[in-house]
Amino acid sequence: MAIFRSERYAAMLLLGAAVLGLVLANSAIGPELLALKTAHLELPWLGLDLSLGHFVSDGLLAIFFFIVAVELKRELAIGELNSLSKAALPAIAALGGVVVPAGIFLLITAGSGWENGWPVPTATDIAFALGLLAIFGRGIPTRVRVFLMALAVLDDLVAILIIAFFFTSDVQLSSLGFAAVTLLLFSGVSRLLRPRSGYILSRKAQWPLMLAMWVLAILTWYFVFQSGVHATIAGVLLGLVMARRPGSRAVHGLEPWSNGLILPLFAFSAALVAIPTVSLTQLSPAFWGILIALPVGKLIGITLAGGLSGLVARRFGGISLRIGDLLVVASLGGVGFTVSLLMNELAFASSQEVVDEGTIAVLLGSAVAMVCSAAFVSWRAAQYRAGKLAATPTDEPAPGTAPLF
């Protein structure tokens, strides 16, 4: 299982799953696979009626969001986002990486009726971005990875808020109330698992509590699903309320399953799309909006916002990057993939044809970003390995100066 903790192998597996899904969907067995994806698993006595595709995107993907939430909580508590000075630059850069792609998408789709897809190009796939940096970035200093991690975590937080506020309808308050109860119980039980807790005398005594947490987690997901709120938010809430140390241990145990099974399965399912047999002029504005806004919007938005906010970092002592390093981060930020695919399914749910076009646009836009980021990262890494740039924070500019590279 250790191989699935590797960022580079996780990225390659994710890409391979997406390519396999797209190829098989357009092969002789494509119709059967598409029919299987839409086949429903109905449990009327529980009020559940999910297709296999939605079982993956609404159910299994909640585990991925749980991991994201635990990591976000850790960064806010003891990591690179635990103070205003540390969070300022990546936060402003992340905001630029959301606003500019959304703006480009809205400009392209204005008057088309598909403007509600603006969230699709705003997401960054943290697993892919870190994987590409690990593959091509040998020699790049740690602070660049830290900045990318902080930006991607904040980007995921924005995505979570978008899902919660823009893709939620007909909220059932009673179900949310039940979810709040199971969530509080989950939080309380997790605090009994802390290593220094006086309530736990042995590891054997922890198993009933762990079983109780699994039951409470599933119940929380069920009630959130029944409430009308997108079910992946349950994973976010569980990650945020869980005690930090047990949460870290849970992530350690779940990460190989998320990287090795859940994310590739979602990528395969989401990419299981028949390529439309239409001319380029017949593709919807949503297709072009995503294709352009994802790689171009992220590159421009993160670079401009990050460059302008460098003044803030120098004043308050936060993470500061040269423009060359910022270009590396900005190009990696254009790899939307997992979260963008989820946003695409939610935004265009009323038209399967546009969902399919959006999926292809996400894959193509992310592919463009991958090629560009591979070039930027390789170039920058070569400079560091050749000794043309100092790799320690002591090479940061003096107040009032800003080196270009």
Question: What do these coordinates show?
Answer:
The longest helix is centred in the C-terminal third of the chain and has 34 residues, at 352-385. The protein has 15 helices and two strands. A hairpin with a 4-residue loop joins strand 1 (40-43) and strand 2 (48-51). It is 70% helix and 2% strand. It has one domain (2-168, 230-385): Na+/H+ antiporter like domain (Na+/H+ antiporter like fold), CATH 1.20.1530.10. The relative contact order is 0.18. With 405 residues, the chain is mostly helical. It is globular, with a radius of gyration of 22 Å. The protein has a two-stranded antiparallel sheet with strand order 1-2.
**C-alpha-based Rg, rounded:** 22 Å
Helix content: 55-70%
Q: What's the total number of strands?
A: 2
Poorly predicted parts: 393-405
How would you characterize the largest beta sheet?
2 strands, antiparallel
Question: What's the CATH H-level superfamily name?
Answer: Na+/H+ antiporter like domain
What pattern of helices and strands is seen along the backbone?
HHEEHHHHHHHHHHHHH
Percentage beta strand: under 5%
| Contiguous helical run count | 15
First-to-last CA distance = 39 Å
- Which structural class fits the helix and strand makeup? mainly alpha
* Structural domain tally: 1
Main location: membrane
Family: Belongs to the NhaA Na(+)/H(+) (TC 2.A.33) antiporter family.
Protein name: Na(+)/H(+) antiporter NhaA
Function: Na(+)/H(+) antiporter that extrudes sodium in exchange for external protons.
